[in-house]
Amino acid sequence: MHWIYLLIAGFFEISWAVGLKFSHGFTQIVPSVLTVAGMVASFYFLALALRSLPLGTAYAIWTGIGTIGTVVFGIVLFKEPVTVMRLFCIALIVCGITGLKLLTH
Prior knowledge:
Layout: H1 2-23, H2 29-49, H3 55-78, H4 84-103
Helix pairs in contact: 1-2, 1-3, 3-4
């Protein structure tokens, strides 16, 4: 169950990071409120996951999910560039997350 909490926390991490872009520096009320709600939810589920998962592993996976998700949403929503090097770096993050998950007992 703690891994599921961590995945949920990661998805909320993506939501608030993308929400920051839509909030335009917290000048738009609805995106700002949703962004803060995403932050709170992300930290809440991360805290639940940390009850039994190692701190370093959980934090790295949480930020990795957020990083990959925000890059993907940046490409899809904001037409950020897709380059071979960006995709390669995302692949490295995925490898690191997978390795940490496999090495956690």
